[in-house]
Amino acid sequence: MSIFGVGRFDDPAVEQRFQTTARQYRLPFVRLYGVMFMLVSLAYSILNPLFVSPDDMVSLAILFGVMLLISGAYICLTFWDGYLARPHIDFTALLMLVFLLGRVNLILFDELIMQEQEMHAVGVMNRLAISAFAAVVLAGRPKAFLLWLMLDLCMFLITVVPLQSHGAGLYYALLSYVSGATIMLAINLAIERTSRAAFQLAQALEVERQHNEELVYNMLPSGAVERIRGGHVVADSFADASVIFIDMAGFTALTKRMSPGHLVDVLNCFFRHADECAARHGVEKVKTIGDGYLAMAGGNVAANNSADAAIAFAHDVLTIVPELRRIAGVDLGLRIGIHSGPVVGGVIGATRMAYDYWGETVNMASRLESCAQINGIAISESCWLRTNKRAEFGPVQQELLKGVGETCVFRSVPKAAAEAVEDDMAGFGRVA
To answer: Are residues 29 and 125 in the same domain?
Structure first.
């Protein structure tokens, strides 16, 4: 916790990011101020010979030369990559400048006093101008700025007290300094609080933006998102893809026997597992339709052999059957149909957009699923010809598929899935 209740961020990484970001935004101001200070110093250097004695002129020339050198070096350092991570550069440079400015003011005041000039309008070079700049540059670090003010006050007292009688002039000078320093500290704290609030708001907006981005990319392929943002129509064709359709056997009857909450638990278990399998095998989840799951290999997610990827995905999905049976408490299973061929994909509509696929290949996968064995896989001849896993499937069989006609179908009940179901059934029997 900082001074006066101004809190630092709990996470050190967030605090560091805030400090770096704030300094990055202040860079143009820092450089502009440095240039302005150099111009003012040059203006004094030009004006001094008109009013200052030759002896004091030499001292002033040296002081102004050093001030110009420090200011120039300070500006150059702001272009260094390591500047943002080193606030002590500002602290040191401004402390050196305010010290030199104090020496300049003493000489100029002595000159004006010796010349018996009226002092009503004279402020010489006001050191509070540098204090104001330090208040801005060191915003976000109030302790550092408070230390800077204390060191500045010490230098002021060391410089002035030996030369100034302890009368009204000294007390007015101290009052002026303290009141000005208090205002500068208030400015420093105000800038810090507003900067932190703005940073927090920006962070919250960035988190929300990333969350929305994740949601969009979960619903749509990344390539489609970029085209939609560019105002383009999203329409694609894929010559060699494999469509996987998975359905839960006996789901309709299950809905009549199970509570809505229990039913959602079963579906969540199935869909989460299918999503994980899709990620492992490079398969694209297209959508869920009731208790059905539609996926694609070789579409927006490229595959070396879409049929092999689809079959490996199907095998992996079937391993969840024992867990589904345990959650449901009844006998259930999955059927999977796979067909390989050309598909068309794209995004239609302006609200609730989703990337979908169409074509005979998608319809065929759905028909094949209906003739698969429970906890088994049915593939078309085109998928069988593409895959390197033909040995896993039985001999070709002719099936009459609705809307398709006589079709060659190859079936498989993966051994691992069958054994898992048998073990599960034995477990049910033992419980009974």
So the answer is: yes
Report d(CA 201, CA 258) in Å as an integer: 46
Can you spell out the DSSP letters for 54-92? HHHHHHHHHHHHHHHHHHHHHHHHTTSTTSTT-THHHHH
More confident residue, 391 or 213: 391
Domain annotation covers residue 221: no
For residue 428, the model assigns a pLDDT of: 41
pLDDT of residue 271: 95
Task: Please tell me whether residues 207 and 69 are part of one structural domain.
Answer: yes
Q: How far apart are CA 291 and CA 288, in angstroms?
A: 7
Count of CB atoms within 10 A of residue 253's CB? 11
Answering whether pTM is above 0.85, one says no
Residue 218 domain flag: no
219 inside domain: no
Which residue range forms the structural domain that includes residue 198?
3-212
- CA–CA distance, 381 with 52 (Å, rounded to integer): 103
Question: What single-letter amino acid sits at 303?
Answer: A
Q: What tens digit of pLDDT does each residue of 245-289 get?
A: 999 987 877 788 888 888 899 999 999 999 999 999 999 999 998
145 lies in the same domain as 237: no
Residues 131 and 167 in one domain: yes
- Pull the structure tokens for residue 44: 């004094």
Cα–Cα distance for residue pair 76/30, rounded to 1 Å: 11
The count of structural domains within the chain is 2
- Measure Cα distances from 258 to 47, 212, 263, 293, 331 in Å: 94, 34, 6, 21, 13
pLDDT at residue 131 is higher than 80: yes
